[in-house]
Amino acid sequence: MIGTEIEPNNRLIGPLWVLATETGWIVGMGLAAVLGQVFSPLTHTILLVVGWGVFGLLVGAAIGISQSFVLKNMLPEGAASTRVRWIGASIVGWGLGLAVVIGLGAGERYGFGISGAVVGLITGLAQIIALPKGFHAPGWWLLASICAWFAGLGAIDLLDQNVGVLLTGLIAASITGAVLFGGVRGRQPED
Fold this sequence. Notes:
Layout: H1 13-38, H2 48-74, H3 80-104, H4 106-110, H5 112-130, H6 138-158, H7 161-184
């Protein structure tokens, strides 16, 4: 595994992961919404996939940067490359993920949950490369990423849209956080 050994000793790491992911989600969505108004023609023309890819890049950047601050607290000094890889993987995963979802028309046909699963798959694959060296369960990370964003974005389909959007990051972070910190400690979730 590429990365630096991870230190999971701080009991606040889990809640901080949830807070960071939710903050990144809300900031990313806000940036994308504001810029979406400016670049609206990109999301309504032949450049639909590109426009939504850019939207994904913004969301991925905000989430990746926020989560990297939590990773910073877990990694020994000099582990900046792991944080940079994490941010890059999040940007690439979300950018490609939303471009694929929109390109396939999955969002309109199958709803936010399936779209989230596709984004989670692509982002999870990218993030596996960036996981810190001490992480013992990369396969679980991929499964958690798929399930987390399926459940998180699926909340938009099941609840009032505004409430669902607000809960998306919390739901996704709770699932990924449990697997991240279980995998760091060498414990894998029970089958």
